[in-house]
Fold this sequence. Notes:
Distance between the termini of chain A: 35 Å
CATH superfamily of the largest domain in chain A: Isopropylmalate Dehydrogenase
Shape of chain A: globular
Number of helices of chain A: 12
Oligomer: homodimer
Number of strands of chain A: 10
Strand order of the largest sheet of chain A: 3-10-9-4-5-8-6-7
Number of domains of chain A: 2
Amino acid sequence: xxxxxxxxxxxxxxxxSAEKNPDIHFIVxxxxxxxxxxxxxxxxxxxRCDIRDAAGVVTMDDKxxxxxxxxxxxxxxxxxxxxxxxxxxxxxxxxxxGALMALSMLRLRKLPGVNRPxxxxxxxxxxxxxxxxxLDCGADIRADAQDLVTYALMGTSYARNGLGLARPRVGLLNxxxxxxxxxxxxxxxxxxxxxxxxxxxxxxxxxxxGGDLPSDRVDVIVTDGFTGNVALKTxxxxxxxxxxxxxxxxxxxxxSKFAALLALNSLKRLQKRIDPRRxxxxxxxxxxxxxxxxxxxxxxxxxSAAIKLxxxxxxxxxxxxxxxxxxxxxxxxxxxxxxxxxxxxxxxGTS
Amino acid sequence: xxxxxxxxxxxxxxxxSAEKNPDIHFIVxxxxxxxxxxxxxxxxxxxRCDIRDAAGVVTMDDKxxxxxxxxxxxxxxxxxxxxxxxxxxxxxxxxxxGALMALSMLRLRKLPGVNRPxxxxxxxxxxxxxxxxxLDCGADIRADAQDLVTYALMGTSYARNGLGLARPRVGLLNxxxxxxxxxxxxxxxxxxxxxxxxxxxxxxxxxxxGGDLPSDRVDVIVTDGFTGNVALKTxxxxxxxxxxxxxxxxxxxxxSKFAALLALNSLKRLQKRIDPRRxxxxxxxxxxxxxxxxxxxxxxxxxSAAIKLxxxxxxxxxxxxxxxxxxxxxxxxxxxxxxxxxxxxxxxGTS
Lengths: 351, 351
């Protein structure tokens, strides 16, 4: 209910997803009468949806702390609750990010071994898989060295299950690639990373810079939620600026308009590659349950993309694999700490 | 000497600038024989250039601390020295950023009232002037509340003298526009900003997000050097990605290649608007002397753009105006602190 375009856009996105994929079942949260009416307008959709009546709405202006105290009865609370109770495998929301994260932490609780949960987003890239993973995109404005290492574990789990990469390459976002660059917690994480990479079956490529976010030398980019959020919005803003300039350039003369007409397919292909709606969906990692945050302003195409991502993760058994991976590595780290000078064999799973 | 493309690219850039602008005189620093030979190849350039013999080179891998100890005799040291001695109005370098900033701080010293100098860069924007100013782009990975306020003063001085804006609008980069968002030093700077804006004759628009960097609701974006550096490189990387995708899209079929040919002027116009070489030049602010840092990999076009920027700033008397503005505001702040509860009239200059 709390997205910028209201429940009509959400139901339209559900309808798109339902049509494309017969295996998804939906639990829709909001005021029953309003939701029923919206669903009834789409032929065949009612049979695919359960409705959970929830009269309240978390608005974009509500502070997370308010929502924690008074949020029961809202559609957001109800959606998270359906994951907690095991009725839903994944929750998808277009609402207030801070409130959704706070509610998810309160109700789903953090996974053992996770201090700070993170939001992972997809970034269009030059890699064969077409996307890189970046986290944290804004769950928490701080992250210490151990958090950054945990982000690497969670991000590689996501890359394995969401993007099908067997051995993801991880980079730490910094202002330079030299060892002495960056804040103390980054240099410390940089030192911890090789051992974790070996134990958890990923490659650590070292420090990367902002220009590497779309590069093909890395699959998972780890950073704190402040930097990640600024980078994400800067990237989106830049892509939009270039797209707008492109439109202006092609609208300038009759000749260029004609050229644009001829190049329509090429331009559409380009637009598809950089369309932020296609990569819609920040995934909350590190909780006992998966939550996908769609852009607040997402239209039906964007919402359908977020649902598709949620479905993929649900089908891959991502949640259990990630939990096992983090718990295993946390246990290994603890064991390593107590017997630091002995040699140890680490079993390597596939999660 | 320390740029990625060596002295040939620098001399080529000097030649471009010399041809476009008869009012610039150059002092060129490096091994005399090599530099003389490069300059002699360009007709008429020798008469426009003085050469300062400097055998040493600061490489991209040199640590700033090493350069401070052993950098005397390098071309970088010599270039900064020529500003210190008043022989040059501005220094331009393509070399190691960290070393250049450390050397500039050591030799030129910080302006009274400045704790942390900053690097300001230009960002292609939707504003009539075509660019926004962002600082700090990487001089220092930290910034406290008072530093951020000083960045606002220095950035507005730059926007007045470099972009011709009478009353620049300043925004603080954050992860949201709400008052409770962000790190403590940002919330504190947010509180200090309105009074500073009034005293220093700029508009404070509040918190802005990464997506606002190219926006027309702000002219100067203030942030710490870590975030600024990541944002800058993310923006450049994204623009390059979209540009490459565009090229690929137009190279796909014969029809689209033909379309690209027809749209050549439009595409060139677009390329010009987003060409990072055109906005080449990070300006070091807060020192007793102006230093312009060109991209390490700049070609002659990029170097010429950096020289043009340096020339503009030199002609506008920017250095003295900025110094006066910072000193005046520092004095006002001190006076305000000692007589906090009295009413005071603040004189408003035009610097």
